[in-house]
């Protein structure tokens, strides 16, 4: 393959994998920087892997030499062991500096919707800090801000369905009327790749065309998979406690208080026109036979 070279962080993972597939389909070459170089390569020999070694910025720069665009999906969902949001910010700064040193033309960074709206939440505060770090670089840049992802292999929607399949009661924190605006991972990948082909600096939200109250979303998922659980409204602290109990059983973090606070604050809704085209309700009809049959573990994917 003789097309232009792009680098994708996490092409063996979720969002990065969909970005890499779209780039390959467009005739471009793809290299990935990964924390899991021994993970199964879904692209065979088509996508070569190099370590995402933040301790060696020179090695990172060499891995990006000759690349046109860096698509960055690196982040951490929660603090675990040595992984922290502050460390993830520093790592991102190292990555951006290495890309600049390597002569990368453009960086497309996948962030989160409304990162500046919740400075009290370390996850969102860290995301905002990464955006500022990128904006301070001389390299051309685009920042894509998804709301909450859905699609085959996602964690959030799949595990709601998993809970609905296994328990007669579905606990909902507070009144359940806080909203979210899911966006399909294919739409996010398409927006990212399109942004990579442009020139000017830009920041754009990636949100789907439908907005749901969280309780209504749970009822809709339940109806599509043939479950009609009783909705139980509980205080946020009680929901986190229940999540910790379930998490102990599945050896994972189901939901933590910070994620719940972000959801309840309405941070997963965009204030911009929807750029995603795929309807969650239509996707759900097609995905429902298999959705939630197995639990999707964040720790198994990224730490084990």
Provide the descriptors you would attach to this structure in a database record.
304 residues, alpha/beta, 2 domains, Rossmann fold, 19% strand, seven-stranded parallel beta sheet, two-stranded parallel sheet, 13 strands, UDP-galactose 4-epimerase, domain 1, 11 helices, single chain
Question: What this model shows, in words?
Answer:
The chain is of the alpha/beta class and 304 residues long. The strands form 4 sheets. The chain has a 7-stranded parallel beta sheet, with helices on both faces. The chain starts with a strand and ends with a helix. Helix 3 links the parallel strand 4 and strand 5. The chain folds into 2 domains: 168 residues, NAD(P)-binding Rossmann-like Domain (Rossmann fold, 3-Layer(aba) Sandwich), CATH 3.40.50.720; 112 residues, UDP-galactose 4-epimerase, domain 1 (Alpha-Beta Complex). It has 11 helices and 13 strands.
């Amino acid at each position: 393959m003789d097309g232009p070279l792009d680098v994708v962080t996490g092409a063996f993972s979720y969002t990065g994998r969909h970005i890499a597939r779209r780039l390959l389909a467009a005739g471009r070459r793809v290299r990935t920087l990964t924390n899991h170089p021994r993970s199964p390569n879904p692209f065979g020999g088509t996508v070569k892997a190099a370590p995402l070694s933040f301790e060696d910025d020179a090695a990172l720069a060499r891995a990006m030499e000759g690349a046109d665009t860096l698509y960055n999906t690196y982040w951490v969902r929660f603090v675990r062991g040595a992984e922290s949001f502050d460390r993830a910010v520093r790592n991102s700064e190292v990555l951006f500096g290495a890309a600049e040193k390597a002569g990368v033309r453009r960086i497309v960074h996948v962030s989160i919707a409304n990162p500046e709206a919740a400075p009290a939440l370390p996850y969102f505060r860290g995301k905002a800090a990464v955006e500022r770090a990128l904006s301070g670089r001389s390299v051309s840049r685009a920042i894509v801000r998804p709301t909450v992802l859905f699609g085959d292999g996602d964690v959030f929607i799949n595990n709601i369905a998993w809970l609905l399949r296994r328990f007669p009661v579905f606990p909902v924190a507070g009144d359940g009327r806080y909203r979210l605006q899911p966006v399909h991972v294919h739409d996010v990948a398409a927006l990212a790749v399109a942004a990579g082909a442009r020139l000017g600096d830009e920041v754009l939200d990636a949100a789907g065309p439908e907005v749901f109250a969280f309780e209504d979303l749970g009822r809709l998922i339940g109806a599509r998979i043939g479950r009609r659980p009783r909705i139980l409204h509980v205080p946020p602290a009680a929901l986190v406690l229940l999540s910790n109990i379930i998490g102990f059983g599945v050896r994972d973090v189901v939901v933590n208080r910070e994620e719940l606070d972000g959801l309840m604050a309405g941070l997963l809704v965009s204030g911009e026109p929807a750029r995603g085209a795929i309807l969650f309700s239509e996707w759900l009809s097609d995905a429902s036979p298999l959705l939630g049959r197995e639990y999707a573990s964040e720790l198994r994917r990224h730490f084990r």
